[in-house]
Amino acid sequence: MTLLPSRSAPPTSRLPPLFLLLLLLLLTSGSYLALSSVVALGANIICNKIPGLAPRQRAICQSRPDAIIVIGEGAQMGVDECQHQFRYGRWNCSALGEKTVFGQELRVGSREAAFTYAITAAGVAHAITAACSQGNLSNCGCDREKQGYYNQEEGWKWGGCSADVRYGIDFSRRFVDAREIKKNARRLMNLHNNEAGRKVLEERMKLECKCHGVSGSCTTKTCWTTLPKFREIGYALKEKYNAAVQVEVVRASRLRQPTFLKIKQIRSYQKPMETDLVYIEKSPNYCEEDAATGSVGTQGRLCNRTSPHAEGCDMMCCGRGYNTHQYTKVWQCNCKFHWCCFVKCNTCSERTEVFTCK
Ligand SMILES: *[C@@H]1O[C@H](CO)[C@@H](O)[C@H](O)[C@H]1NC(C)=O
Ligand SMILES: *[C@@H]1O[C@H](CO)[C@@H](O)[C@H](O)[C@H]1NC(C)=O
Ligand SMILES: *[C@@H]1O[C@H](CO)[C@@H](O)[C@H](O)[C@H]1NC(C)=O
């Protein structure tokens, strides 16, 4: 018996079979295919671990593992923007309940729910479009239709990389909308708000141009479309939120299934506009924690003692009053540079107060 491997055995016989399989793929099919197989192997595991995906979303996840990361980033961008826009509100974009890729879901079909759906749908479309432009995703890139064409009237040519927002929007539609599986009024509301978010993004695409010619003379000009900053979408949707429209469902078919939404007013048969945010239920006041509405309440929230607005303690704490916390803020100040070479500072301090809701 010997512990040394026998000379006649093939040199790879001790490697695990999975490694061999991958090696075989690498050698036989070019590195790109092999790489995507490795990614796909991981995707099965990753996609099954993501909580709250609908079956069709899980299928998209498995077939496009490169996109799922970008989808996650887009949804997170939507949640972050929501928290920024509502940082001074009683509702600060958090909710009780199950955590999904899209953050926490609101149970009540309120205008707050409308905002979260619109901003995540827009976030996913924005992130996918940006990733396409940077060449980070297979199957997409710059907008090919806007390449080389000459705009006769305005005297410029499409050039550079135009962001393919239609691809991003299409992708968002296929993925984000796939979570609406129940055939009820809330589904119609969610789908409308998803579409409104994407439409707001599409309407705010920008045109950027560059002049060419001796010393900037602009003998020729090339232009391309770019994505707006996502902050701009946040503000635009916040305005839509302030003007959100209450709707009700119309059951038009013989099966009395929810068919479309109309503005909730007596004797009105008007449909909401495409870019309106719509809601079907009144908002709770978000003062107390309440599992039935998903409200987390405002206990412990920071508030401003003197402000008469939403962030003021009166409004924020719903009349329950507030606690005062005093602390001493300490920092380095009056720093001077001495030759050579050190910096000398004083220590400054200040008594400060913060207020939190009872
Ligand atoms: C594209 O990929 C690069 C390198 O991985 C990364 O730094 C960048 O943030 C990605 N861009 C987008 C829009 O996902
Ligand atoms: C929102 O408010 C809740 C409840 O007071 C708090 O726990 C949470 O940290 C806040 N979230 C943000 C993003 O400020
Ligand atoms: C509180 O609100 C007042 C009035 O709106 C404002 O002047 C002040 O800067 C706010 N304080 C803080 C700490 O935000």
Automatic annotation (TrEMBL):
Biological process terms in GO annotation: canonical Wnt signaling pathway; cellular response to retinoic acid; fibroblast proliferation; forebrain regionalization; mammary gland epithelium development; neuron differentiation; stem cell proliferation
GO cellular component assignments: extracellular region
Family: Belongs to the Wnt family.
Chief location of this protein within or outside the cell: secreted
UniProt xrefs under CDD domains: wnt_Wnt7b
Top-level division of the source organism's lineage: Eukaryota
Gene3D superfamilies (UniProt xref): 3.30.2460.20
Matching Pfam families: wnt
Stretches of the chain forming a coiled coil according to its record: none
Protein name: Protein Wnt
Record keyword Ion transport present: no
Keyword Secreted among record annotations: yes
Compartments it resides in: Secreted, Extracellular space, Extracellular matrix
Keywords carried by this UniProt record: Developmental protein, Disulfide bond, Extracellular matrix, Glycoprotein, Lipoprotein, Secreted, Signal, Wnt signaling pathway
Transmembrane segments: none
Span of the signal peptide: 1-30
Job of this protein: Ligand for members of the frizzled family of seven transmembrane receptors that functions in the canonical Wnt/beta-catenin signaling pathway. Required for normal fusion of the chorion and the allantois during placenta development. Required for central nervous system (CNS) angiogenesis and blood-brain barrier regulation.
MF term (GO), any: receptor ligand activity
